[in-house]
Amino acid sequence: MAKINREDIQIINRHSNWSQKNIAKTLKENIYNNASAWHQFLKLFFLALGISFITFGIIFFFAYNWEELHKFTKIGLIEGLLVLVTLILLFSKISLVTKNILLTASSILVGVLLAVFGQIYQTGANAYDLFLGWTLLITLWVIVSNFSPLWLIYITLINTTLILYAQQVAYNWSGVTVFTLLFTINTLLLLSFIALPALIKKPNPPGWFTNVLALASVSFGTIGIVSGIFENYDPFFVLLLFLVLSLYAVGVWYALRIKNSFYLSIISFSCIVIVSAFLLKISEDAGMVFFIGLFIIASVTLVIKTLIDLQKKWTK
Questions:
Q1: Is residue 15 part of a domain?
Q2: Alpha-carbon span 89 to 230, nearest angstrom
Q3: Per-residue pLDDT averaged across 116-130, rounded?
Q4: How far is it, in rounded angstroms, from Cα 223 to Cα 155?
């Protein structure tokens, strides 16, 4: 039997004579976090915070003492830390969550090691191939751990690699082309994380993770279309417009199906930005700017009211 949630209790309360005493008891037993849950949360929170401080402390240590350190010391310290953390992951009996947090820190240290190597041997510490190598080296860790924060770092590295490649190698790529690729990659990843868990019967990723991916995808699509509106004609603009409109249609259907107001809100606000950019492209005189302002105020108000009404309807 599925665990009862807050919405279930609210629905039962509205359609029954359930006493307030029993409701409070049910909320305490099934909804509210007890001392044990808070203890577990704080334990993981401070563990992640401590490992993050240690990781960034190592980064700032190298940044501050760069000139005084021998190149063997620079590389040796990071490699030693990577070996140490790997041994802890393999042979210790710590919890899986702790191991995943340590693996995330190790993945960041891989990037630090590549950056230090690039600085010492002048291969470039901000070149796209550094981020490409970083992405490839931690791919197996990401897949095996299936840890959402590590996946988020991995996807960020993919996007960074593509952006730097466009800036440093593919000079002939237009901005619309780059944003089309970014939108496509992030959308495919989002669809994979939504669809695959059901197909392979695995737990769904946390909501914050899919929300961040959806926000990234919508942001790239919005920026790409706005850039295409104000730039010269680009054949990729038509493709991007088709992909974005198709995804938005699917996104609205999916959001209504699972009763998710976040997807509806980001799609709606993206459409408002795109329409405003199109109107500004038609004319930039004071009258049009005034009309765009009124349009934004009216459309945002309508979107918020609609979302509030939907949320009330879904919780009945």
A1: no
A2: 51
A3: 67
A4: 19
